[in-house]
TrEMBL record:
Catalytic activity: 8-oxo-dGTP + H2O = 8-oxo-dGMP + diphosphate + H(+); 8-oxo-GTP + H2O = 8-oxo-GMP + diphosphate + H(+)
Organism name: Gluconobacter thailandicus NBRC 3257
Record-stated family: Belongs to the Nudix hydrolase family.
SUPFAM superfamilies given in the database record: Acyl-CoA N-acyltransferases (Nat), Nudix
Protein name, per record: 8-oxo-dGTP diphosphatase
PANTHER family from the UniProt entry: 8-OXO-DGTP DIPHOSPHATASE, NUDIX HYDROLASE FAMILY PROTEIN
Length: 338
C-alpha cells in the first residue's frame, strides 16, 4: 500500500476520489499537460476520476504508487512510481501546479519518493523520461542524482505528435554513493605542498558511527522492531531499537539510555548478551553496530518517539523492510530462535 511520506512542509499521501476536482483543475492546463505524454488536452473531468481509481487499484496490487503532494491540505501536484513486473526497477513521474513552480516543491517531493523507493521498496534502478523542451524537469532530476542515459522519442497525446525525450536513470548504488559524498563528506585532505607527480585524489574516508541496538525477545521468542518515523533518515524502515553511543558512554550505558528514551523500558541490571555486530558501509558513514539480545526488562515497551512497534516472529523478519546493513542479522536471529 502507498504510505504517507513527509518532505519538509509537504505531506505526500495516496490520492483520494475527492481529489478529482483539484487534479482536473491543475492538469487541465496546457503548461502542465503538454509535458505529460499520455494525457489529452482538454483533459476531461472523468479521466481524473478514472486515473485516481486506477492509482488505488495499482497501489493495492503493489504495481504503482502515486502520491498527492499537499501543503496545509491543498493538493499542489503529484509524484508517481510505476514498478516493473519483477519490482526491481520503476519509472518516476511528476507534475506540479504552475503556481508553485520554482519553489523547490517538486524536487523535495520527488526526492522523498526516490528515497522511499530505494530504501524501503529496495528498488534497484529508477528511470525518468523528460521532453527535451522541459529543462525544468531535467534540472529536478539532476538535483536528485539522475544521469542522462540516452535520447528517444515518445508520442505526446496532448500535442498530437512525437516529441524527442531525454532518458534519465538513477541506480541504487549511485544513490548510496551520492549520499556518502554529499550528506556527510569528511573534511578535505591536507593540501600537499610539494607533490612531484599529480596523485589521484584520495577516496573519501568513511567515518565510523557507533550505534548500539537490542533484539528484545518476548516469552514467545518474538523480536521487537521499531519503524523509523517520517523526518528521520531511513524513515519507514524497521530496525532494532537503539541509537548512537555518546562520547562519554559505554555501549551498554548507551543501550540502557536509548531503551528508556525510546521505549520507556528499564534495562538496568538486565542481562545484555552481546550477540553479534554489524560493520557495514551505510552511505554517509560506516556503521559499527553491536547487537545485544535482551530477554528481561522492567516496563512495557511503548513508542516514545513516534515510532511504530511490532513484535515479529523470526520467520517473518524478512517481511519488514530494514536498513541494508541489518539484512545479514536476519538469518543469524532465525538460527538463534529457530
Ligand atoms: N537503532 C538502530 N539504528 C540502525 C539500525 N540499522 C541501521 O542502519 N541503523 C542506523 C540508522 C541511523 O542512521 C543510525 C542510528 O542513529 P539514530 O539517529 O537512530 O540514533 P539516535 O537514536 O541517537 O538518534 P538521534 O536522536 O541522533 O536522531 O544507525 C538498527 O537496526 N537499529
Amino acid at each position: 500500500m502507498t504510505p504517507e511520506l513527509k518532505a519538509g512542509d509537504f505531506l505526500l499521501r495516496p490520492l483520494r476520489p475527492e481529489d478529482a476536482p483539484a487534479v482536473h483543475r491543475l492538469v487541465n492546463d496546457w503548461s502542465v499537460v503538454r509535458m505529460l505524454s499520455r494525457l489529452p488536452f482538454p483533459y476531461p473531468r472523468d479521466l481524473a476520476e478514472k486515473w485516481i481509481a486506477s492509482t488505488l487499484e495499482d497501489s493495492a496490487r503493489g504495481e504503482a504508487h502515486h502520491f498527492a503532494v499537499t501543503r496545509n491540505g491543498t493538493l499542489l501536484g503529484a509524484v508517481g512510481l510505476v514498478l516493473s513486473d519483477d519490482r526491481r526497477s520503476a519509472s518516476l513521474g511528476y507534475w506540479a501546479s504552475p503556481a508553485v513552480w520554482g519553489q523547490g516543491m517538486t524536487t523535495a517531493a520527488a526526492q522523498r519518493v526516490v528515497e522511499w523507493a530505494l530504501q524501503v521498496l529496495k528498488i534497484e534502478k529508477l528511470t525518468a523520461d523528460v521532453a527535451v523542451d522541459n529543462p525544468g524537469s531535467s534540472a529536478v532530476l539532476r538535483k536528485l542524482g539522475f544521469q542522462e542515459t540516452g535520447r528517444g522519442s515518445r508520442r505526446f497525446v496532448s500535442r498530437g505528435t512525437d516529441c524527442p525525450i531525454i532518458i534519465h536513470e538513477l541506480t541504487r548504488s549511485g544513490f548510496l554513493q551520492q549520499e556518502a559524498t554529499i550528506q556527510d563528506a569528511p573534511p578535505p585532505p591536507p593540501v600537499q605542498e610539494k607533490a612531484s607527480t599529480p596523485a589521484a585524489p584520495p577516496l573519501p574516508k568513511p567515518r565510523t558511527l557507533l550505534v548500539v541496538a537490542a533484539a528484545l525477545l518476548d516469552t514467545q521468542g518474538r523480536i521487537l522492531l521499531a519503524r523509523r518515523p517520517e523526518g528521520k533518515r531511513l524513515a519507514g524502515l524497521w530496525e532494532f531499537p537503539g541509537g548512537k553511543v555518546e562520547r562519554d558512554e559505554t555501549p551498554e550505558q548507551a543501550l540502557i539510555r536509548e531503551m528508556k528514551e525510546e521505549l520507556d523500558v528499564d534495562l538496568t541490571g538486565s542481562c545484555l548478551a552481546p550477540f553479534t555486530f554489524v560493520s557495514e558501509n551505510a552511505g554517509p558513514f560506516h556503521l559499527l553496530m553491536p547487537l545485544y539480545v535482551v530477554r528481561r526488562w522492567r516496563g512495557t515497551p511503548a513508542p516514545r518517539e513516534g515510532q511504530e512497534l511490532a513484535w515479529v516472529k523470526a520467520a517473518d523478519l524478512a517481511k519488514y523492510p530494514m536498513p541494508d546493513p541489518d539484512l545479514p542479522l536476519i538469518p543469524l536471529l532465525q538460527e538463534l530462535l529457530g
